[in-house]
Specification:
Number of strands: 5
Mean pLDDT: 97
Bound molecules: adenosine monophosphate
Order of helices and strands: HEEEHEE
Helix content: 10-25%
Radius of gyration: 13 Å
Strand content: 15-25%
Largest sheet: 5 strands, antiparallel
Oligomer: single chain
Low-confidence stretches: none
Number of helices: 2
Structural class: alpha+beta
Distance between the termini: 35 Å
Shape: globular
Length: 112
C-alpha cells in the first residue's frame, strides 16, 4: 500500500471531489480551499514535483491543459492563479506533483 496521499486519491482509496480528468491527470477540490475555486491538478503517475515533470513533456502539457479546462469550467474568465509550491521552503507539503488552480477572488501580490 502506498504512503502517498495523492496516489491514494488516484486509486480511489481516499475520497475526493473530482471535477475533471484527462489522459494523464486528475483534478479535485482542495480540502482546505483558500478561494471560491481551489482545485488541485495532479499527474496520475507519482512524481514528486512539477519540475520533475519537465522530463515528461506530454504529461506536463496534459496537466497544464487540464488546469486551464478546470478554470474555464469554473467560469474563471477574468483570470486565476496557477501555483506550484516546490520543495519545503516553497511551501510544498504533499510530495506528489500538483498545480493549485485558485480563483474567484482578487489575488494579492507578492504571495506570502
Ligand atoms: P502544497 O502545500 O502545495 O503541497 O498543497 C497541498 C494541498 O493539498 C493543500 O492545499 C491541502 O489543503 C491539500 N490537501 C491535503 N489533503 C487533501 C485531501 N485529502 N483532499 C484534497 N486536498 C487535500
Amino acid at each position: 500500500m502506498t504512503e502517498c496521499l495523492f496516489c491514494r486519491i488516484v486509486s480511489g482509496e481516499i475520497p475526493a471531489e473530482v471535477v475533471a480528468t484527462s489522459e494523464h491527470a486528475l483534478a479535485f477540490r482542495d480540502i482546505n480551499p483558500t478561494a471560491p475555486t481551489h482545485v488541485l491538478v495532479i499527474p496520475t503517475r507519482h512524481v514528486v514535483d512539477i519540475p520533475t515533470l519537465a522530463g515528461a513533456p506530454a504529461e506536463l502539457a496534459d496537466l497544464v491543459a487540464l488546469g486551464a479546462r478546470v478554470a474555464a469550467q469554473e467560469g474563471l474568465d477574468d483570470g486565476y492563479r496557477l501555483v506550484a509550491n516546490t520543495g519545503r521552503a516553497g511551501g510544498q507539503v504533499v510530495f506528489h506533483a500538483h498545480l493549485h488552480v485558485i480563483g474567484g477572488r482578487r489575488m494579492g501580490w507578492p504571495p506570502g
